[in-house]
Amino acid sequence: MTDRARSALPPGVLSMHVLPAEHHDHDWDAIIVPREVKERLLAQALLVLQHGRQLSMLAGLPHGLIVLAGPPGTGKTTMARGLAQVAALALARQGATALLEINPHAFPSDMLGESQRNVTRLLTETVPEIAARRPFTVVLIDEVESFAVRRSAASFEANPVDVHRATDAVLLGIDEIAKTLPSVLFVTTTNFIEGVDEAFLSRADLVMRFALPDQETIARILEHALGELAVQWPALLPLTKNEARLSELAALCEGWDGRRIRKLVLAGLAQRLDVARDPAKLTWTDLLSAARKKGGVEWAGGQALTSREMFPDVAKDLMHDHDHGHDHGHGPHGHTHTHQHDTDSRSGS
Ligand SMILES: Nc1ncnc2c1ncn2[C@@H]1O[C@H](COP(=O)(O)OP(=O)(O)O)[C@@H](O)[C@H]1O
Ligand SMILES: [Mg+2]
Predict the structure, then answer these.
(1) Could you give the CA distance from residue 150 to residue 144 in angstroms, rounded to a whole number?
(2) Residue 203, phi then psi, degrees to nearest 5
(3) What is the mean pLDDT of residues 92-97?
(4) Cα 123 from Cα 194, distance rounded (Å)
(5) Ligand 1 atom 26: the closest Cα is on which residue?
(6) How far is the CA of 80 from the centre of ligand 1 (A)?
């Protein structure tokens, strides 16, 4: 369950979950990467969460920092969330894991010194307070390039001194947490690793580079996406078993990212009105045609039908005439559409 219901979230915190939790398995399962990739990532996380205290005695101590880098839509954020759940499953017997999602855009500020203060508050107050409540803590910082801005590239920023100070505060905070709260794990993602500060990257225990999926992976993503549709519309289950068609479709998606590949299935459903209204009617023709159009629309075809030509038989009592969302029925101007109406009825009563 989320903590959001119980208390207001601290500034800069997007969400907070206590894991493992039911319904949090799908993120990890949705991302299709080789087995070794997932195992390496999980091993890195468990090493810090479980043995951080002992390892913090080493001269080369872990910083509890993982960086997932790569093009947009390659599964980094989903994988980071999934990792928190799977690590929490592994550690469940030893206690709960808090997952804290940070909004990196909450920190840059126009006010001089404010970014630095915000970062410092997050890393010296918020994270330690939350880490004190549960045995394990995972902090997810998405788009970390706006949190740990590369100082060597910040010289043209509006306020380079402030950017420098904020990044300095991030490094100080990470170093301090590595020493005093060694079972806190930071999982960060970036679409633009060139924008992430070098000293931040050098603290990472693991930098994992994501790439666009190859053709076999594309086929597996399509299979997974169709499988999810088949849960809702079981008639579609045979689609997931047709290897020849899956690879034919995958070949058309070469160079696409995972997000776009999943959206292709939706575009397939929206090729024909008939299918949009009854997804069980989806065919390979729809999917292949959506892929050939690259998920977009062909600007072609005859004259479009009018609304009533398309839907001639919608009964009169289903029409919401004059209902524009105002609380009509009160006051003298029950059916007017102007905002004047509201002021009128208030002053007139
Ligand atoms: N390798 C992959 N396997 C399966 N789905 C993927 C893969 N990569 C991306 N996706 C899907 O694409 C969408 C975007 O993923 P996301 O984690 O937000 O990517 P990123 O953070 O890298 O931009 C999600 O629905 C995810 O399931
Ligand atoms: Mg992302």
Answers:
(1) 10
(2) -85, -15
(3) 97
(4) 24
(5) 75
(6) 11
